[in-house]
Amino acid sequence: MALLEVRGLKKNFTGKNETLHAVKGIDFTIEEGECLGLVGESGCGKSTTANMTARLLKESEGDIFFLGKRINGGKRLCAAGKEMQMVFQNPADSFNPHYSVLECVMQGARYYKLYSKSELKERAMEWIKYVGLKESYLEKKIGELSGGECQRTAIARALICNPALIICDEATSALDVSVQAQVVELIRKLKEEKKVSFLFITHDLALTSSVCDRIAVMYSGRIVEMGETKAILQHPMHPYTQLLLSCVLPAVGDDEYRVPECSSFRGAGDGCDFYEFCPKICTQCKDRVPDLQEREGRMTACFQRGDPDE
Ligand SMILES: Nc1ncnc2c1ncn2[C@@H]1O[C@H](COP(=O)(O)OP(=O)(O)O)[C@@H](O)[C@H]1O
Ligand SMILES: [Mg+2]
Fold first, then answer.
1. Which residue's CA is the closest to the ligand 1 atom numbered 10?
2. What is the pLDDT of residues 199-234, one digit of tens each?
3. Would you kindly state where each structural domain of the chain is located, as residue ranges?
4. Measured from the CB, is residue 50 less than 6 Å from ligand 1?
5. ∠301-307-310 over CA atoms, to 5°?
6. Matching InterPro entries, A to Z (predicted)?
7. Which ligand is nearest to the CA of 22?
8. Which residues keep their CB under 5 angstroms from ion ligand 2?
9. What span, in angstroms and rounded, lies between the C-alpha atoms of 270 and 263?
10. Nearest CA among 139, 129, 128 for reference residue 100
11. Distances from the Cα of 112 to the Cαs of 74, 109, 237, in angstroms?
12. How far is the CA of 304 from the centre of ligand 2 (A)?
């Protein structure tokens, strides 16, 4: 069994007048030491998926299996535990700015009572070094750190719990490009050296190429294409992935490239979510939602499963 298996996961947010279908039934797995990228524009349901997986948010439907056990379904929402850690876009928000780097990293394991007092400090110092922060940083206050240093501290805080899976929700999005590359490199090192698995969430498709083994492209609450990163980036099959890729490298100052915004208000039975924007529509698209089906080692949810270069 995979390290993580998500089956038929759905989330509806019910408002006064309408129901928003944020996640409409998604399935994916992550193996040990694998990094799965979850990619899609803002609002497509990535964070909702992450939060349900980490048990910070209750699902409307579906199952989540982690380390061979079903982790949802209990009466109370209960965090997934030390083996599944999360790193967010703005880590500063989840730290007390007056705490030192050392205190913040130790805090990660204190709750789980994993180590004795002296061992806890030793482990924290090891991980702080591993993520690339110098010893002089140990006593620095979080409030004095740069974005990249703060993100390294957040990763060290996750690592001290020896997690099997780390969910990075736009963890590099707020960083400068060069710092972003350093954090991505750290993730790669962790994957290779420590066999940590990652769910790497980003709206930036280009960023997946250096770190993700596979990617799942999400649009309007559904996965529309999933497969090996290289294959998808070189030959995207789904029209939405093709559009997303064409937007990856817009010329500087060129605002012509725009990805159509998804609508989470469309319900099941309204046809393909991408219908209105798709250049390749056929008669079925308006009335039915295409299933995610395998073809040439790739999963795509499109009635037009033709040659990717067509
Ligand atoms: N707590 C909430 N209540 C109501 N709507 C929400 C809530 N959280 C997210 N949404 C909506 O669900 C959709 C998906 O959001 P989100 O998962 O945050 O997307 P992403 O992370 O891909 O940007 C959006 O339309 C968002 O406005
Ligand atoms: Mg998000």
1. 22
2. 999 988 888 998 999 999 999 999 999 999 999 999
3. 4-83+163-300
4. no
5. 110
6. AAA+_ATPase, ABC_transp_ATP-bind, ABC_transporter-like_ATP-bd, Oligopep_ABC_C, P-loop_NTPase
7. 1
8. 47
9. 12
10. 139
11. 20, 5, 44
12. 29
CA 42-46-48 angle, to 5 degrees, is 115
Cβ 43 under 6 angstroms from ligand 1: yes
CA gap 129, 145 in Å, rounded? 15
CA of 120 to the centre of ligand 1 (A): 37
Q: How far apart are CA 85 and CA 159, in angstroms?
A: 8
- Identify residue 201 by its one-letter amino acid code: I
Probe ligand 1: pick from 48, 90, 224, 273, max atoms within 8 Å of CB? Answer: 48
Q: Looking at the structure, give the CATH architecture of the domain made up of residues 4-83+163-300.
A: 3-Layer(aba) Sandwich (3.40)
Is 42's C-beta closer than 6 angstroms to any atom of ligand 1? yes
| pLDDT confidence of residue 253 | 47
